[in-house]
Structure prediction request, 125 residues.
Amino acid sequence: MASRPTSIARLDRIAMTLSGLCLMHCLATAVALGLLSAAGGFLGKPIIHEVGLSLAMILGAIALGRGIRDHGFVLPSLVGATGLAIMAFALTRHEGGLEPVYTVIGVSILALGHRLNLKAHRQIA
Prediction:
């Protein structure tokens, strides 16, 4: 019987934690929607995409390039470069068309390249 109060206390802590998370979610959603509606015009400007792609290319070149140097596997860099190329191609598309689709595909492939790079680092460690 001694374990029963402990399990009830654990359930209470879990319930309070979930209640707190629900509260945070509701407040964060309201704030995020307000900010997004106000910033929607700014976030849709082409300069945001161009700067984002530039940063992705710089970080990708550093991280994936160091990966080749450190672990010697080229595949992660090839996958990452493919993702970056698709992202760059997306910038040439008209907004509202397939540009978001190409961007999401490119970003996903780039993330896969970084994941493969991370796994290759762990393999040699």
Notes: Residues 3-43 form the longest helix (41 residues). The chain is about 90% helix and 0% strand. The chain has two domains: 1-41, 44-125.
